């Protein structure tokens, strides 16, 4: 009788296909999303209140498929998970919620409007929603386009509002493989993201590409975490004439999209 009970217990713990395993999986992604530096097996064991044997059964295939990365004794979210997150975000209500603000921004500035989210594992910004300018001469990219964070106005904004550890890790390891019109170095990038954070806004004229300019502002969630960059982009000749006005409009609209009622940041 004791052997039968023991076998039943073992079978339940080995069950990785049922509702219990799904709950563990969602809980795993939840705790790791709040721990960008990663968590050890022991920490996950405590956070999820799950036997280590069951956790390992869950973790191994996720690491194999790059949903998670495992190194130096810690697990963290991997590139497959970030790509999935971007795809889910594109289909989720978030872009739909932001779309009225994008429409307003496009109407008021008559420039292409982009909503970009970070893929920290891939060190890129992913554009999940794009609204094209009505002008025949305009900036245009397809939804799903990615760019290195340091290259784009929106990417540098996301870096500026990332947590300090993530910023430091990125600045210490980033490789400037994609050349820009105005050369970007570790020193200049660090200075730029500090300025962006202080101003609450990112803008550039002819930095990544000759004739292309952009302005970006952060979109925050209810926890005051920056979850996206709301940007406009277009020809430099138009931006250079209206830059201050464009900066004011982008920041105002992004603040309202975040539920912030004034430009000082009060809710």
CATH class of the largest domain: Alpha Beta
How much is the radius of gyration in Å? 22 Å
**Helix-strand pattern:** HHEHHEEHHEEEHHHEEEH
- Corresponding CATH architecture of the largest domain: 2-Layer Sandwich
CATH superfamily annotation of the largest domain: GAF domain
**Secondary structure: number of strands:** 9
Terminal Cα span: 63 Å
Task: Quickly count the helices.
Answer: 10
Taking pLDDT < 50 over at least 5 consecutive residues as the criterion, the unreliable ranges are 1-18, 262-267
Largest sheet: 6 strands, antiparallel
- The backbone outline, from C-alpha atoms, is elongated
Q: Strand pairing plus helix content: what structural class?
A: alpha+beta
What is the mean predicted local confidence, pLDDT? 86
Helix percent band = 40-55%
What's the arrangement of strands in the largest beta sheet?
6-5-4-9-8-7
CATH domain fold name of the largest domain:
Beta-Lactamase
Number of domains: 2
In percent, how much strand structure appears in the residues? 15-25%
How are the elements arranged and paired?
Elements: H1 2-14, H2 19-33, E1 39-40, H3 41-48, H4 52-64, E2 68-71, E3 74-77, H5 79-91, H6 93-109, E4 112-119, E5 124-131, E6 146-148, H7 153-160, H8 164-173, H9 186-199, E7 202-205, E8 212-220, E9 226-235, H10 236-257
Antiparallel strand pairs: 1-3, 2-3, 4-5, 4-9, 5-6, 7-8, 8-9
Helix pairs in contact: 6-10, 7-9
Can I get a quick summary?
The protein has 267 residues and is an alpha+beta fold.
Please describe what this structure looks like.
By secondary structure, this protein is α+β, with helices and mostly antiparallel strands. It has 2 domains: 2-77, Winged helix-like DNA-binding domain superfamily/Winged helix DNA-binding domain (Arc Repressor Mutant, subunit A), CATH 1.10.10.10; 82-257, GAF domain (Beta-Lactamase, 2-Layer Sandwich), CATH 3.30.450.40. The protein has 10 helices and 9 strands. The strands form 2 sheets. The protein has a 6-stranded antiparallel beta sheet with strand order 6-5-4-9-8-7, with helices on both faces. Strands 1-3-2 form a 3-stranded antiparallel beta sheet. The radius of gyration is 22 Å and the shape is elongated. Residues 1-18 and 262-267 have low confidence and may be disordered.
């Amino acid at each position: 009788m004791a052997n039968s009970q023991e076998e039943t217990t073992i079978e339940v713990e080995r069950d990785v296909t049922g509702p219990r395993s799904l709950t563990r999986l969602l809980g795993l992604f939840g705790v790791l999303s709040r721990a960008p530096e990663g968590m050890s097996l022991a920490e996950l064991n405590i956070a999820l209140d799950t036997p280590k044997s069951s956790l390992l059964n869950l973790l191994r295939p996720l690491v194999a498929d790059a949903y998670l990365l495992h190194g130096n004794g810690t697990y963290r979210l991997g590139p497959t998970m970030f790509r999935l997150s971007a795809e889910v975000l594109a289909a989720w209500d978030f872009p739909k919620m932001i779309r009225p603000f994008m429409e307003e921004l496009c109407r008021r500035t008559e420039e292409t409007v982009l909503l970009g989210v970070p893929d920290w594992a891939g060190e890129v910004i992913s554009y999940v929603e794009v609204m094209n300018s009505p002008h025949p001469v305009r900036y245009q990219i397809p939804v799903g386009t990615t760019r290195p964070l340091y290259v784009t106005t929106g990417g540098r904004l996301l870096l500026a509002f990332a947590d300090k550890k993530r910023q430091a890790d990125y600045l210490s390891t980033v490789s400037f493989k994609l050349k820009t019109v105005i050369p970007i170095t570790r020193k200049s990038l660090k200075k730029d993201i500090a300025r962006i954070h202080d101003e609450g806004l990112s803008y550039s004229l002819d930095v990544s590409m000759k004739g292309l300019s952009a302005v970006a502002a952060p979109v925050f969630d209810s926890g005051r975490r920056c979850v996206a960059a709301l940007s406009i982009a277009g020809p430099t000749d138009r931006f250079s004439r209206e830059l201050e006005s464009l900066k004011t409009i982008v920041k105002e609209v992004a603040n309202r999209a975040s539920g912030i009622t004034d430009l000082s940041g009060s809710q």
